[in-house]
Design goal:
This protein is mostly helical and 392 residues long. It has eleven helices and two strands. It has a two-stranded parallel sheet with strand order 1-2. The radius of gyration is 35 Å and the shape is elongated. The chain starts with a helix and ends in an 8-residue tail after the last helix. The N terminus is likely disordered.
Amino acid sequence: MKRKISLLLIMILVLSTLTNVVAAEDTAQIGNVSAENKILELSMNEAVKIATENSREMWKIDDGIKQMQDARRSGSTAKQQAEALMNMSLEMITAMEIDITNNYVETLLAKNGYYIKVAESQMKQLERSREVLIKGIEIGTKSVYYNVLVAEKTIEINQAKLNKANEQLRVVNLKFNNGSSTKAEVLSAEMAIQQAKTDLDSAIDDLNIAKLNLLNMLELPFDTEFVLTDTELSYVPTDKINLDEKIEKAKQDRIEILTAENDLEIQKIETHAYTAYYTSNLRENKWAKEKLKDAELNVPQAYKDVELDVRKTYLNLIKAERSLANMDKTVELAKEAARINKLLYDNGMATSLEVLDADTKLAEVEIGRYQMLAAYNINKLMFDYSDIGTFK
């Protein structure tokens, strides 16, 4: 019997050991997965989604909409109470000992639906502001995303420039050793390598800064490791634009115009109440009329400002596209210049310094072209959304 019990205990211990080993392997596998998942793979659309979800401004707008919904209900209650008070007979008012002259203007405003109108107007403006904010977050996020891509491309180009400089130094040293090159050319090649290293280090620093800006935009911890999955910047030519149609749509949809028109309607109600209670010689009467006049002038000014903004956004887009086309041509010329200088050098008709200068200029225009491509894409996006709002 004791032997059976001992065997049973041994089996339990063995099974327990096997279970722990399996559990340890599973834990190790989970740990590996977690380690792999620490690097966030980030597409442009995912970045926009994260930035939108984490936006504090979005939370504030949503809270503001809820507050305006409550304010509208309060305004509706105030309107009912004011109407009931206005419909009371003088005897009832006297019997209830109500001082109708106390806050009479506020009562009159409530009766005319002023507080309801204010809440409704604010709610519409907040809803429109929400749409504008969503587009603004998209533009801002894509802009900093592009900055990371540009920084990565700059590192790639500068690394290629450094590789060329190293190769050029190798060739110059060979020629110097056989007497067909000068010490000055060797020094120039060494200086080119140092400059290329400096440019590469600077580009790496710029990349780190761009990554921090992107993480800040996404409201993510600064130690978050990520890689961008949308690594190619593409050029999509601008279709033929009907600027007049774009301007008319902006005049219908832009929040500036909605705000100006809502302010005018609200001010009409307020001015009516104040002029109905205060005589024309009193300061309150004159103040209300001045506010109405300002509100009336603000409407056409809002239309003008919106049109100006759309036209400027359009011109910025045309300018960015033209600059990009010119830079494409410049890159072609720089590539050809670098090729010819290398060919001339190989045949003893150019100096190593000319080759290095040509390679440096090629790298500069390639980086500039990539920067202009990013700027063009942002300007295109801003024009596409110019009928919705202004994005600074």
